[in-house]
């Protein structure tokens, strides 16, 4: 494995197969263990690493320069307060660039440190990415010690012993503790985030690690948004008189999360209230309908993935972050495949013909990424009928 020579290695990455990459540690110090994936986005590193769907994962950025945007509180994607755990580690090619953006309130390195993200720069990220493409996403251990005391054999053993992502339920660690209202709307250039209207359809979001921009775009589309913990019983959700329900993104294996969520989702599907699933939510709705999810070899993580929207005939360039996929062939007969990945043909969306259920695998809220799929929110909220207040 090629490596960039380091004058003073203060960080290292070991993969489960025993490969080791050394470099300069930054961000938090300590050891993080997780599944290693690569992300091809060129911007939005703060949004990516604060997305709770990345819980239990270490992200290798293929874009070599990281840090010039710095960090700020408006770009956080964890929607819980205090922020819930997201990515545990970060790998990049070049040393972190100092912030050079008017929105930065702190350096990216300082943000990584306060968020507890163990980070490593100076790594040959091309070699690492090629390795993931050829052999899949390995379990890994990444260490940062400012004094350079890193036990490589110990790191290798930790990576080898790490439990793989299959069968892991991680949403419980990132969902919010209590239900609450959300009224922050999408960011705009002139005034930053706004506040939502107090009328409009009531949308209840099941939080399995929801990204803030999903909530913001629902508000911007005119919804009154309530967010509930992922394990809220269906009866309590229905008591909120939702006009629409959103099943959020989230980390881990959808089959493991579904073990407690599927009965709730089935009751909600039977209620005939319109439902929108996003990413983990898409996968869990497929499971609730009798479908199957599979582990992908390298997953999709980036901000420039082409997806064909069969409903409009158009190609949307979207943000992606998933390591599991819905087996399109396993969807029930009354499901129409609405979206497909143009990279590998995997299922990226479906809707039912007999019930108001629709779901997408990609991240229509972007953050980071293009806005091609924002219409998912305006269409969904626009289709909801406002019920009388309970
Ligand atoms: N972004 C997400 O919701 C990810 C879903 C799931 N954890 C996966 O990796 O496939």
From TrEMBL:
PROSITE patterns linked to this entry: GATASE_TYPE_1
InterPro entries assigned to the protein according to its UniProt record, in alphabetical order: Anth_synth/Amidotransfase (IPR050472), CarbamoylP_synth_ssu (IPR006274), CarbamoylP_synth_ssu_N (IPR002474), CarbP_synth_ssu_N_sf (IPR036480), Class_I_gatase-like (IPR029062), CPSase_GATase1 (IPR035686), GATASE (IPR017926)
Alphabetized SMART domains for the sequence: CPSase_sm_chain
Pathways per UniProt: Amino-acid biosynthesis; L-arginine biosynthesis; carbamoyl phosphate from bicarbonate: step 1/1; Pyrimidine metabolism; UMP biosynthesis via de novo pathway; (S)-dihydroorotate from bicarbonate: step 1/3
Pfam families tied to this protein: CPSase_sm_chain (PF00988), GATase (PF00117)
GO molecular function, one term: ATP binding
GO biological process terms on file: 'de novo' pyrimidine nucleobase biosynthetic process; 'de novo' UMP biosynthetic process; glutamine metabolic process; L-arginine biosynthetic process
Keyword terms of this UniProt record: Amino-acid biosynthesis, Arginine biosynthesis, ATP-binding, Glutamine amidotransferase, Ligase, Nucleotide-binding, Pyrimidine biosynthesis
Ligand binding (L-glutamine): 53, 250, 252, 280, 283, 321, 323-324
Catalytic residue list: 279 (nucleophile), 363, 365
Similarity annotation: Belongs to the CarA family.
Functional note: Small subunit of the glutamine-dependent carbamoyl phosphate synthetase (CPSase). CPSase catalyzes the formation of carbamoyl phosphate from the ammonia moiety of glutamine, carbonate, and phosphate donated by ATP, constituting the first step of 2 biosynthetic pathways, one leading to arginine and/or urea and the other to pyrimidine nucleotides. The small subunit (glutamine amidotransferase) binds and cleaves glutamine to supply the large subunit with the substrate ammonia.
Official protein name in the record: Carbamoyl phosphate synthase small chain
